Amino acid sequence: MPESTQSSSYSASAYYSPWKNSLVIPAGLERPPMIGPGYPDVWIIATFGFVFSHEVSHEFSSADTDRRSPWDFLSKSRFRERTRLLQEQYSAYRLMGVALNGVRTSSEDVADNTGVKLAFQAYKKLTAHQSATIEQMIQTHLNYTQDQLFFLAHAQLFCGVYKKEHVAEIISVASHSASPFRIIGPLQNLPEFSEAFKCPTDSYMNPKTKNTIW
Hints:
Blueprint: E1 15-17, E2 22-24, H1 41-57, H2 73-91, E3 94-95, E4 98-99, H3 106-126, H4 132-142, H5 146-156, H6 164-173, H7 179-188, H8 191-197
Antiparallel strand pairs: 1-2, 3-4
């Protein structure tokens, strides 16, 4: 988001400012489906925690953006190669027959992949010593494990509907990948998702080749 952009309190768009090294999370995000009365910790971390992790990771979503401590040549080379593979992954996706542009959305795709990975790690750390009663309650009332609930909550962030006549235009100008692939892409790359839902090896959501940045 441009530095000149001002975010109103009711906005639902968070952003990170590299020039001020500041993270802006408007009050508009602090409501359902992100946070609400009685929401379990796993849900809040999967949504709000993801947004926080996504935005912070923008400081490291390009080999050329770390101004305070420049990366060495080897670090930049490895990062760019991993980013290239991620770009190829996203460019192979199609929405209603229209190809995504993985190069155009690269920075946001890196942040999406990093964000959900960090949020899941934070959730596991927070709940490591949690009472087994909470897990049992979630399974009893929702028929999902707590890990599965994490990924379902995360996916809720990107629910949306596209009109076919507008898809090509949206993809040509958007800085983010189309919503379905903001779910599919990162979760295909995350082994913990496949483990949670027991996805067969080399199935659509559990490909043998997984692209990771960090």
